[in-house]
Amino acid sequence: MKKYAFEYIMEVRDYECDLQGIVNNANYQHYLEHTRHKFLEAHNVSFADLHNRGIDAVVARVSIDYKNSLKPGDKFASRLNLVKDGIKYTFFQDIYRLPDEKVCIKARIDSVTIINGRLGICQELEDLVEKIAAEIAE
Amino acid sequence: MKKYAFEYIMEVRDYECDLQGIVNNANYQHYLEHTRHKFLEAHNVSFADLHNRGIDAVVARVSIDYKNSLKPGDKFASRLNLVKDGIKYTFFQDIYRLPDEKVCIKARIDSVTIINGRLGICQELEDLVEKIAAEIAE
Amino acid sequence: MKKYAFEYIMEVRDYECDLQGIVNNANYQHYLEHTRHKFLEAHNVSFADLHNRGIDAVVARVSIDYKNSLKPGDKFASRLNLVKDGIKYTFFQDIYRLPDEKVCIKARIDSVTIINGRLGICQELEDLVEKIAAEIAE
Amino acid sequence: MKKYAFEYIMEVRDYECDLQGIVNNANYQHYLEHTRHKFLEAHNVSFADLHNRGIDAVVARVSIDYKNSLKPGDKFASRLNLVKDGIKYTFFQDIYRLPDEKVCIKARIDSVTIINGRLGICQELEDLVEKIAAEIAE
Question: What is the ipTM of this complex?
Answer without folding.
Answer: 0.94
